[in-house]
Amino acid sequence: MELSRVCLAPNPMRLAAIALGSNLPSPCGDRDANLREAITRVARLGKVRAVSSFYDTAPVGYTDQPDFLNAALLLDTELDPLELMRALLAIERAMGRDRAIAPAKGPRIIDLDLLLVDDAVLATPELTLPHPAMAKRSFVLEPLAEIAPAMVDPLTGLTVAELLAHLN
């Protein structure tokens, strides 16, 4: 069943929350350099409002891989959610990540996940908002809570800080 409820204001600027992660070196450098390069590239899609600290985290699921460096950022953008997701995937590809051949939850140079866009709720084959696993991942919620504790998950009505507290 396809669910779509996109409640976006007429104002073309939208606030997007994006999670970043890296656990492999790349031509850009180490994990830290990968996150910084991704932030620079994401900034071309709008205006970065905030960036969290970088968090060193153990892998989840597929654990036989290096630790991740995770972060979150807030982006003011004119792109609609699907355009933004496609742009994030293009950044991943440009930085050397090929989702088609990489193992699910496996090592990656860069991972960019679109978590929230204003109060949009969307479920299509290409994009689900809010991100379906966001509320189950401390490595996503901790950095996001640092920069946007009052941001609300439109499905649950809970703030990011409340989601993190429920998880802990």
Provide a brief overview of the structure:
This protein is an alpha+beta fold and 168 residues long. 27% of the residues lie in helices and 25% in strands.
Strand proportion, as a percent range, falls in 25-35%
Biggest beta sheet summary: 5 strands, antiparallel
- Poorly predicted runs are none
Ends apart, CA distance between termini: 32 Å
- Basic shape: globular
The radius of gyration over CA amounts to 15 Å
H/E topology pattern: EEHEEEHEEEHH
Helix content: 25-40%
Secondary structure category: alpha+beta
Report on this model:
The chain is an alpha+beta fold and 168 residues long. Helix content is 27%, strand content 25%. The longest helix is centred in the middle third of the chain and has 14 residues, at 81-94. The N and C termini lie far apart (32 Å).
List its traits.
3-stranded antiparallel beta sheet, about 170 residues, about 25% strand, globular, alpha+beta, 5-stranded antiparallel beta sheet, 8 strands
How would you summarize the topology of this molecule?
Layout: E1 3-5, E2 14-22, H1 31-43, E3 47-51, E4 55-57, E5 68-77, H2 81-94, E6 111-117, E7 121-123, E8 128-129, H3 138-147, H4 160-167
Helix pairs in contact: 3-4
